[in-house]
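User: Hey, quick favor. My workstation is busy. Could you predict this chain's structure for me?
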Amino acid sequence: MDSELRRCKRTIRIFVRTAYTNERLAWLLVHARSGRLSYQSCCLVGLPTADHALAGKMTSEQVSKSRHHWIGKAFLGADEAEQALYRLGLVRRAGLDASDELRRRRLIPMVLAEIWQRAGEEKRSTRVPSSGTKMAVRRGTKTFVP
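Assistant: No problem, here it is.
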């Protein structure tokens, strides 16, 4: 994987991690899996504040009139994430244009990874050791042994 693609993915991961609630992250996954997520829509940047059913490809005029798209652009890293999403669809072979299908193929595993990471963090944060839990000491720190 080339460094630009890695950089784009990292930019999108950071944006999704900070701008998306768990519910909106699930919306993004469903929208991408349905095949309707498009660069020319309010999706990645506008979805965290969307007040309507998610749409597919839109005209530039429709995107510019989307109030929630502009609200979403106020999130830290939104402009960078929008450009990174565009670059996710670029194909390095001559004569081929950017592809929403390629964007979705690259974005879906990233969204799934974020969902799984959040689920794991939530599970770890709600796990409280009982009074009968044994403890082990490793390198001077206490670790719980189930």
